[in-house]
Amino acid sequence: MKPDDAALHPPGASQATVTPHRAGRTELATDWLADEVPVALVFNGISHAVMLATPADLEDFALGFGLTEGLLAEASELHDVDVQETRLGIEVHMEVAGACEFRLKERRRNLTGRTGCGLCGTESLEHVHRSLPEFRVGSHPIHVTTAAVGRALRSLRAAQVLQQSTGAAHAAAWCGPDGEALLVREDIGRHNALDKLAGAMSRAVTDASQGFVCVTSRASFEMVQKTAMIGASMLVAVSAPTVLAVRTAQAAGMALAGFARRDDFVAYTAPERFGLSTD
After folding, report:
1. Active site residue 100
2. 21-48 pLDDT, tens per residue?
3. Domains contained in the chain, CATH given
4. Catalytic residue (one of 117, 120, 175, 214)
């Protein structure tokens, strides 16, 4: 990308001078790099987490993180968001309802005295699995065609402005039943991208039962759980799922597909909801 293209660069990217060596030639050039910034999420003055994230769509990130982590029971519990840049990174200050602050303090209390964790905020194995909103994903689960999955992948790829510029970003998309990507969010972190999408969907008052989520990463347990937490009943991922992810999707009544590339994919749960039949 040329320097005079600066006005076209996506939020979350910065230019740098680089020295590429290709086909035996070495020369100076300019390129775009994805920004990676420590982002502290602060609830009513209580710092809960610091994430390395792309500094874009942070209001969506704050809301989505609160919802998918079960700290916010609903969007109305988030009253205000203030993004503050500091010398060390970015602080996202959230003014939340008392119920949310109580949940946060309970989560922090569970961490007291621990030296490390794999899933932060969990006191024991029983706390890993949150109560998923089956009443939302199970009543009228969405069915799509195989063509819709292929369209979702193409539509998502076309909307990945940050990825196209830097090659270093994940994306998560909310797609309509026909596969058109209606909302897309990008971030260097796959979880962050999905949280940003969750926040954007909530702000847009999106009915999560009327479409599906498509992500550029593997379908880990956490990606499935976050998708279920927003009430979506279908997840399509470009890479593989894990055993725990598949079990979680089955328990939540979620249709899960992985290895989605071009027009191909593998259904790991509910193949009939992707229009698949082996008869």
Report:
1. no
2. 999 999 999 999 999 999 999 999 999 9
3. 3-34 (no CATH), 37-128 (3.10.20.10), 135-274 (3.40.140.10)
4. 117
